[in-house]
Input
Amino acid sequence: MKLRSFFPLEIRRGPHLCEIAAAGRRDAFHCLAFLPARVRPRVGALILLLVVALTGCAGPGASTPTPTKTPEAAGAQPEAETATPPPSSAQGNTNTAAETEQATATPVPGSVARYTGLPLADPSLLQETPVLVCINNDITSRSSHYGLNEADVTYEFIVDGFHLTRLTSLYQSIPAREIGPVRSARWPNIHTTYMFDGILACSGGSDGIRYLLKNEVGFPYLDADSEDPESVTYFFSVGGNYRTRLRTSVDRVRRWMIDMAKTCDVSPLLPYCLEIFSPWLESQKNSPRPLERASFPFSETPKEFWASEANTIRIPYPENNGVEWRYDPASGRYLRFQSGAVHVDQATGRQISSDNVIVVFAEHELTNIVEDSLGTRSVKIHLYGFGDLRVFRNGKVYEGTWRANDQSPPRWLGPGEQPITLKPGRTWIQVVRTSDRISYQ
Output
């Protein structure tokens, strides 16, 4: 019997179908109370069949096929063949076995941050789960950016039918007190959160993306719309414009994690606890500690295989959203401009800067997930697999390839698969289409 064809819904990382059937010898139908209402009739009928037909499936050495969970269509929206989260590098370009290979951990001293290579005044921060925050980046919101200069890593990628870009910043070494403006989640947030083994904080999302984040993924998702609609606990509001008003902090996101753990301790059979949060929390106890996990490679001295000088970088994002980085020899950092204007972090009043700028070339495709009332479709970016890249540091450019999967941070490789070391400090990752032509000089 192929269970997949009869049972399209999986309790992700929770009880498998065979386990539910085995429970029938005790109280199988008790399981139904904790399943979504829409599948209870099917599951009840299935349990009757399985208790009789598969009573031996829970015996020693038995293995159970893991069915694939199929998202429920939202309204009149057509079913999206791409609406399955990508927890495997098989989603990307998989022409070689190298893409499924997990990165080898780079040893990091106990007082040095994994993703900046800088000393930490408080080494206990290394034990904290990275926090990833969705940040608006339309032309209205750029004058309201807070906390970007405190992020260890920031991704910029194209969204919404190739009309604009969105940012996702990762925080671990600095507990930023003001981050924003927070906006809704997009497809690439699933990839990046898996890669960095983090938690995600955003403000809502389309029906398709929100379904995946609340039902399918293997990491916690803090949604401002459902978890803090009044913006008083885990987020805070600074005005009436939905594009710019919402902000959060690292401490507020971590407070939600603590509160959710308490909730799941009291009510362990709540669907979100059962399917997402509790399995993730348990996996954290068994996962490698930060010192054993892969990290970015850093070196104060640039490697000798750089390709050319690169003091100015131009990235042609669509619809007048182009980015320019200019190298400042005095600080040893690149300074950021977007749409021809200086880009400022309002938390400090200083221009946004980065010690490293990495341009990742990746395949982009439109999905059937609708992002807004205008029918704008979601953009899926293949961030697992491999592709071309350029790494900029110290006014120089390195050419090579990136490799990534859902188990560890991306790797940056030069000629002969040599790791490209980054300068200790912040890193901005600019994701572009394979057809885009960046320029530098």
Observations:
- The longest strand covers residues 396-405.
- The radius of gyration is 23 Å.
- Confidence is low (pLDDT under 50) at residues 1-105.
- The chain has eight helices and 23 strands.
